[in-house]
Design brief:
The protein is α+β, with helices and mostly antiparallel strands. 38% of the residues lie in helices and 17% in strands. It is globular, with a radius of gyration of 27 Å. The protein starts with a helix and ends with a strand.
Length: 653
């Protein structure tokens, strides 16, 4: 019996030792994996194409603004010069990151004259090939009727788009990029971001059928002729309006390198024009000064775009009514045609228009709206989502317009000679663009700011926070720049109690994986069983990317956005809404108790500002290892049982 007890005791000790050894090995492996993942994210950050050339423009106070040279003013007239900011070309610092994932430069960089001739030759060839492809897609005669009579490339943004200041400003933006190629001697990205709802996301269609994908394929060879790598990113999100979340989270979601930001939210914004107004205001504050292109359906949003253009922002409106009249109306009607006649029609025209209706009606226009060669039973094939032929027309229309602007930019460059100081030209053009955007931030109207209402928060404070102050956003929304870069949740080996993302979309099954619906309304979930959860804003990687220039000090203001659609899932319990945050949550910011909240109501999309007993500004915390890194740590726990809350985004000012 004694021997049995000794054996049993020895066996148990061995088991305990084995468990400890295995646990240690698992922990070591986890630590190594976490560290490798952290380093991998940093490498992806450093090698990304998403970071624009470092162009820092520092304004000083003076009564005048230095202007570009007289010749460049003829090319582009900036807005009036009476302002309190002064910019100087010597204050512009230009450094180029080492882009890792762009093609090798395909043009030789020699003298300005020979380089431009090479670009013009490549452009002519690429343009000829694009036209030949479109003539095959639509038929030579129908293509000419749809897109060339009149030339839709020069009329898509208005009756005579080429004389507008926005057309000239977009040309200026492309010239800036071409000069960067020539001076840097390497390929430079040109990034187009499509922001919008499920129509922009091309729900019901394949990813490569969206108008953004069509645009990218069409213009990539054109831009490649000048050493630019055109990148079209479709970041549409189902059911989302443009504000307040997407507008306030613009840089975090759409990235820092947007050269063009496409607005396509008319369906979900509806008559809440304050959303579009906020989105446009935040675009002027984006550090890469993107051009704004908007698909416009009604006049009120056009008035907002006109206000943008009048105040110096590159704002081009794609009028859907104009496209319907000039392009879609010339698509041959499939109604009344025989089977043989239908089969003889190009695929891009067959079943595209039935009895004057686009992708709707008989014979087969409704049935053939969405392609079927891959994943034919994919979801979201509904009546309010246009099909692939509609997307092709919009994408090709945008492409032909960008081609025209690119050609004008190259023509402008061709007037320069080897005696031209290209670096000086680049600085002058950047100066003009920066000046216009700085002025616009002060001058844009806020006609619809009353959409954002708060009983407790004063209108001046709210307007200043939303429309004029830089903010940072830590968002679970997808697709987003932060999610792509892996920066939303940093690896912290000492504290594993961070808010983690809960994926909200269904898993795609083969053969549909990766070909449709990649936007997802994900969220940070906090449940009664979780205890305390925390998030540091910004985390280390976010600070490196967004705050390294130390030009956006934190004021200590924090707000949260909750997921709009409620869930009454028995597995989760009762969902906590905005008006119950104080009663159902215990919240702290940098150790200071949250004692009140202010709800900014915007129809169903509410923004909740957190307060302590002395106001909205919480004390910021300095990192001992980095005196320039200020942060806010938000901690929360659910009070009571079987309750949960879903945060979509955390915002700080």
């Amino acid at each position: 019996m004694a021997m049995a007890k000794v054996w049993e005791s020895t066996f148990l000790r061995r088991v305990v030792v084995l468990v400890v050894v295995l646990a240690s090995a698992v922990l070591v492996n986890f630590v190594e994996f976490a560290a490798e993942e952290h380093e991998s994210r940093i490498r992806r950050h450093d090698a990304t194409n998403d970071y624009p050339p470092r162009i820092v423009v520092t304004p000083t106070t003076d009564s005048t603004i230095s202007s570009p040279s007289q010749n460049d003013e003829k090319q582009f007239e900036s807005s009036s010069a009476n302002d309190e900011s002064k910019l100087d070309t010597n204050q512009i610092e230009i450094n180029f990151p080492d882009y890792q994932s762009v093609p090798e430069l395909s043009i030789p960089i020699t003298s300005i004259e020979s380089t431009i001739e090479t670009i013009k030759s490549g452009l002519t060839k690429a343009h000829r090939e694009l036209i030949a492809k479109l003539e095959v897609d639509y038929g030579k005669d129908t293509f000419a009727q749809m897109f060339l009579s009149p030339p839709i490339g020069r009329m898509a943004f208005g009756k005579d788009s080429t004389v507008t200041s926005s057309w000239k400003a977009m040309k200026r933006k492309i010239i800036i990029k071409l000069l960067q190629v020539i001076l840097h001697g390497k390929t430079i990205p040109f990034v187009w971001i499509t922001a919008g709802n499920s129509v922009a996301a091309a729900h019901g269609n394949l990813m490569n059928e969206s108008y953004t994908a069509v645009l990218e394929r069409a213009v990539q060879p054109i831009f490649r002729s000048g050493g630019l790598h055109f990148i079209g990113r479709n970041q549409g999100m189902s059911g989302m309006p443009s504000g307040p979340e997407l507008a306030l989270c613009m840089e975090s979601i759409y990235g820092l390198s947007a050269d063009v930001l496409m607005y396509d939210f008319s369906l979900t914004d509806g008559t809440s024009y304050g959303f579009a107004e906020l989105f446009f205001h935040r675009a002027t504050m984006h550090r890469n000064r993107p051009a704004v292109v908007a698909r416009i359906i009604e006049t009120e949003r056009q008035d907002l775009m006109t206000n943008m253009e009048q105040n110096g922002i590159t704002a081009l409106s794609l009028h859907q009514q104009t496209i319907n009249k000039l392009v879609f109306a010339d698509i041959p009607d499939s109604f009344g045609k025989t089977t043989e006649e239908l089969e003889a029609m190009p695929e891009f025209l067959r079943h595209a228009r039935c009895q004057k209706r686009i992708e709707n009606g008989e014979p087969y226009c409704s049935e053939q709206r969405f392609s079927r060669y891959v994943c034919p039973n994919r979801p979201y094939r509904v009546g309010w989502h246009p099909g692939w032929k509609w997307h092709a027309v919009i994408g090709n229309t945008l492409a032909l317009s960008m081609v025209e602007i690119f050609q004008d930019a190259v023509e402008q460059l061709s007037s320069w000679t080897s005696s031209t100081n290209l670096e000086s030209k680049l600085r002058e053009l950047i100066l003009a663009e920066s000046t216009d955007y700085l002025r616009a931030q002060k001058r844009l109207l806020t006609k619809h700011a009353d959409l954002f209402q708060s009983d407790e928060m004063g209108t001046p404070f709210l307007t200043e926070a939303l429309f004029q102050s830089n903010s940072f956003c830590h968002s679970a929304r997808d697709p987003s720049y932060l999610r792509k870069m892996g920066l939303v949740t940093e690896v912290d080996l000492d504290n594993l109690d961070q808010f983690n993302i809960t994926i909200n979309n269904e898993k795609q099954s083969e053969p549909c994986e990766g070909v449709w619906h990649y936007d997802s309304a994900d969220f940070f979930k906090l449940h009664s069983d979780d205890g305390w959860k925390r998030v540091v804003l910004p985390n280390e990687d976010e600070h490196r990317l967004f705050f390294a220039q130390n030009d956006r000090p934190l004021r200590g203001i924090i707000a949260v956005i909750l997921v709009v659609v409620g869930v009454n899932d028995k597995n989760y319990g009762l969902e906590i809404r905005e008006d119950a945050l104080l009663s159902d949550l215990d919240m702290e910011v940098n150790g200071v108790q949250v004692s009140n909240t202010t709800i900014v109501k915007t129809s169903n999309w509410n923004l909740v500002f957190l307060m302590h007993e002395k106001g909205y500004e919480f004390p910021t915390r300095l990192n001992p290892a980095n005196a320039n890194r200020e942060s806010l740590e938000f901690k929360a726990r659910v009070l009571g049982e079987d309750k949960f809350v879903r945060f979509s985004s955390f915002l700080i000012w």
